[in-house]
């Protein structure tokens, strides 16, 4: 039961972050300040959010963020990366729980 609550909480949190950063802020900044300014103003906070992660994850987060921002601007939707991130975190939570209880 606790695992379901944890995964649901992660999913709701990710939805909020993706909607705020890749939805509202990204498109708003792109309209007013240009695409490149919008990309960098979004990539930097996401890079900082991954600062506590292992070095490889931290280094991959910048190019991944650039790709995600470009894709989100082009498709005008944050949903593909929201779904991808939710599935990723949910899978790792379930796998971690399963390995912990072996």
Structure description:
By secondary structure, the protein is mainly α. It has a domain at 56-91. Helix content is 88%, strand content 0%. The chain is built from four helices and no strands. Helix 1 packs antiparallel against helix 2, helix 1 (2-33) runs antiparallel to helix 4 and helix 2 packs antiparallel against helix 3 (55-75). It starts with a helix and ends with a helix.
Q: What is the tally of beta strands?
A: 0
Shape: elongated
Overall pLDDT metric: 77
How much helix, percentage-wise, in residues? Answer: over 70%
Number of DSSP helices?
Answer: 4
> What is the CA-atom radius of gyration, in angstroms?
15 Å
Strand content: under 5%
Distance between the termini: 17 Å
List the helices and strands in order: HHHH
What structural class do the secondary elements suggest? mainly alpha
Low-pLDDT sequence parts: none
Largest sheet: none
Quick synopsis:
The protein has 102 residues and is mainly α. 88% of the residues lie in helices and 0% in strands.
List the helices and strands and how they pair.
Layout (H helix, E strand, L loop, with lengths): L1 H32 L1 H15 L5 H21 L3 H22 L2
Helix pairs in contact: 1-2, 1-3, 1-4, 2-3
């Amino acid at each position: 039961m606790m695992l379901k609550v944890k995964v649901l909480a992660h999913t709701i949190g990710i939805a909020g972050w993706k909607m705020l950063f890749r939805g509202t802020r990204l498109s708003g900044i792109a309209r007013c300040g240009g695409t490149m300014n919008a990309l960098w103003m979004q990539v930097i906070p996401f890079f900082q959010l991954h600062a506590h992660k292992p070095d490889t994850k931290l280094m991959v987060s910048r190019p991944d963020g650039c790709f995600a921002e470009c894709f989100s601007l082009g498709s005008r939707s944050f949903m593909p990366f929201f779904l991808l991130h939710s599935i990723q975190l949910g899978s790792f939570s379930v796998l971690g729980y399963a390995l912990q209880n072996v």
